[in-house]
Amino acid sequence: MDALGDPTRRLIFERLQGGARSVGEIAEGMAVSRPAVSQHLRVLKDARLVMDQPLGTRRLYSVDAKAIQAIRDWLDGFWDQALGAFKEAAEHEARERKRR
Amino acid sequence: MTGESRPAGFDPNSVRKVVPVQAPQQVAWQVFTEKMGGWWPLATYKIGRANAVDAVIEPRVGGRWYERGDDGSTCEWGHVLEWEPYSRLVLSWDISADWQPDPNLKTEIEVRFVAEGADRTRVELEHRRLDRFGARRDEMRRIFDTEGDWGRLLESFARRAEAA
Fold first, then answer.
1. What one-character DSSP code corresponds to residue B50?
2. Does some domain include residue B136?
3. CATH classification of A7-63 is 1.10.10.10, yes or no?
4. How many CB pairs under 8 A join A and B?
5. Coil, helix or strand for B48?
6. Inter-helix orientation angle B137-146/B150-163, to 10°
7. Could you report the per-residue pLDDT of B95-136, keeping only the tens digit for each?
8. What ipTM does this complex have?
9. Residue B152 pLDDT more than 80?
10. Domain-embedded: residue B145
């Protein structure tokens, strides 16, 4: 199951990067109907990429921040380690070249 | 990491790092791009089945970024999107959930080498468009649970993801 394999869903997901929106706001200017947008949102929700919350009579959809946060946390530690090793290698190389 | 090195806006879809390096800009660039196999933690951060012995960036736009195994096999990680020696490099990270090249799932890594005097370089790295990477985290988690190497690495990621 590839929730973002569909171009319309990808577009919807990208629109939500800018902040929470209602179905109507998401559908605005898009070539697909509101019911179709709702369908796509359901797929994104099932994939836990998008979450929704009620706001009065509407529902607001937004990117599920936890999905990204776990990746960010992991990459944060990964790049610390990789760049630490890079720094050591570059400084070693600089010292070697100076000596020559 | 200092306050001014942080951009004003926080982007939840990117990770930024700044590393001061006691080396000339050209040396920093060369070690990053030409000698990556010498510092990249290949023991754990690789995707092929063979033991990885090198990490290679082909020095041109469109060039491949890949690991080389001790059996001569190669495994692609991504491509060079921008190549501006000795100051700026943009790589794509094109590994999909099933660890196959997937041009639709690229995250981007931009590395800037900013000279701060003759012997000092500030290296800034941004790994961005993580929405694309994160989008498949559940699929990835399953794969990481059953594979070695990146699997072990991602076990810790998976634990965090579950705790989140």
1. S
2. no
3. yes
4. 110
5. coil
6. 130
7. 654 455 566 667 899 999 999 999 999 999 998 887 776 555
8. 0.74
9. no
10. no
- A34, two tokens: 């509101």
Residue B114 belongs to a domain: yes
Residue that has been written with the tokens 């072990």 in this structure: B152
Cα–Cα dist B117/A41, whole Å: 52
Domain count, chain B: 1
Instruction: Report residue A23 as tokens.
Output: 């179905």
Q: Give the other-Cβ count within 10 Å of B82's Cβ.
A: 12
Question: Which of A89, A83, A7 is closest to B125 using CA atoms?
Answer: A83
**Contacting residues of B for A82, CB less than 8 Å apart:** 39-41, 45
Domain extent at residue B83: 16-128
Of A63, A76, A90, the CB nearest to B28: A90
State mean pLDDT over A15-36. 88
Q: Could you tell me if residue B137 is inside a domain?
A: no
Cross-chain residue pair A94–B23, CB shorter than 8 Å: yes
**B134 in A contact zone (CB under 8 Å):** yes
Contact between B15 and A72 using a beta-carbon 8 Å cutoff: yes
Structural tokens at position A20: 């929470």
Which residue is closest to A67 within chain B, CA to CA?
B134
Which site among A86, A95, A97 would you substitute to test the B interface, given the most B Cβ atoms closer than 10 Å to its Cβ?
Answer: A86
